[in-house]
Each structure stands twice: as C-alpha cells, then as structure tokens.
Write a structure and sequence with these properties.
- The complex is a heterodimer of chains A (about 140) and B (about 80).
- With about 140 residues, chain A is mainly alpha-helical.
- In chain A, about 70% of the residues lie in helices and about 5% in strands.
- Chain A has a two-stranded antiparallel sheet with strand order 1-2.
- The termini of chain A are far apart.
- Chain B is about 45% helix and about 10% strand.
- Chain B is built from one helix and two strands, in the order ββα.
- Classes of the chains: A mainly alpha (about 140), B mainly alpha (about 80).
C-alpha cells in the first residue's frame, strides 16, 4: 500500500544519510512519485501519494516539521511512523526468508475457505458421478 | 511527592489497540508481535520506544500538575 511505501522511503533516506527523524523531511511532489515508482515497481500517481500522506498525517505516522508548513510540504516521520515502517520491512524480510513448505502452509492457512469450498465441490461432484453411474 | 506507579499499555503501531500477546513467551529485540485486532506484525524495539515516549509524556504531565499544586500551596501559605 502506498502509505507504507512512503514511510519506508523516508526511513531509507534517514538510514542512508545517518540522520534522525527530526533532520529528514520530504515534500510530496513528482520527484517522490518517481522515486517510489522505481523503488517499489508500482504505478502510483501524485494524487495517490497525497491521499497516502493524508492517511499518514491522520494516523500520526507523519507530521509537519514546522508550524505553517503547507499540507504536503516538509513532512517528517514520527516515532510511531518509523515503527510502522520498520515493522513492515521486518515482516517482509521474515516472509521472504521462509522455507518453501512454510510458504505453502501459510498460503493454505490464508486461503483455507477456498480450499474447503473446493473440497466440497469435489465431494458433491464425486457423489453425483457415483449416483449417475449406479442408476440403470 | 509520593512514589507512583504508572500502567502504560503497549499499543499496536498500526491500529492503536492495546496489544494482547501470549504472556508466557519472552519477547526480545528483533521479534515481531502480531496484533490480534488488525493482524499486523509490530517490531518489538519500535513498540518499546513508542511506549517509553508515551510513558514519559504521562509522567511529565503528572509532575507538572504536582509542581503547580505545590506552588499554589506555597503562595497560599504566604497569603
């Protein structure tokens, strides 16, 4: 989701420059859109990013670095926002490093309803086939 | 000032609900704690940091109130 990409972008900038959250800020403009598109291989527009920024501001994941700043200018990470970005990054790394069997097991668990439905369909079809086969 | 104990709940970073986890498991730096409400994984270190910040704010507010009360009492004595 775009808001997590925005937070991760800020976190990456902090870590690459060795700066704290108070020293790094971004403004939502076309250059940020291009950065996020190339880094995450996704299609998003400036409006999508503005909407994501609104979401992050309302959840207090981002804040304005000074009073009087315009809505999408000079946005900084809050401690909660940095925590969200780090959590997402760690969860993605943990998911990527799972063994194949665990990935399959997790996929089945996440889609258990679908597998139950398929099982029911197979059971009903088998029953119908048997009934039609047995009737003269 | 009397000694006080503060209970600061650890809240999910994503949905802001109080995190409910297995109390028998010991969590450490680098662990991910799953929120039962929203299903998101929360980084242990970030949770501790945010909770500490919240706790500091609560304590500071309380200390300010106590100091204001003490000042009012001092000025009342002088009157």
């Amino acid at each position: 989701m775009v808001e997590y990409m925005l937070l991760e972008n800020l976190l990456d900038e902090m870590e690459s420059s060795g700066a704290t959250a108070q020293m790094v800020s971004i403004s939502i403009d076309q250059s940020i859109v291009d950065q996020i598109k190339s880094k995450h291989n996704t299609r998003c527009s400036l409006d999508d990013l503005k909407h994501a920024a609104d979401l992050c501001l309302s959840r207090e994941w981002l804040k304005h670095s000074y009073l009087g700043a315009k809505q999408y200018e000079k946005l900084q990470l809050t401690p909660t926002g940095a925590g969200v970005a780090r959590s997402k990054r760690m969860a993605a790394q943990a998911a990527a490093s799972r063994p194949m069997m665990k990935k399959m097991s997790d996929y089945i668990t996440d889609h258990s309803g679908l597998f139950v439905f398929l099982g029911c369909v197979i059971g009903v079809v088998t029953l119908l086939l048997k009934l039609f086969k047995d009737t003269p | 000032m009397k000694d006080k104990t503060y209970d600061i709940p650890v809240k999910c970073l994503f949905c802001n609900c109080t995190l409910k986890v297995d109390t028998e498991t010991e969590y450490k730096s680098g662990d991910l704690l799953k929120c039962q409400e929203c299903g998101e994984d929360n980084d242990y270190d970030s949770l501790i940091q945010v909770t500490k910040d919240t706790g500091s704010k609560v304590v500071m507010e309380d200390v300010k109130k106590d100091i204001e009360k003490e000042f009012k009492n001092i000025f009342k004595k002088f009157k």
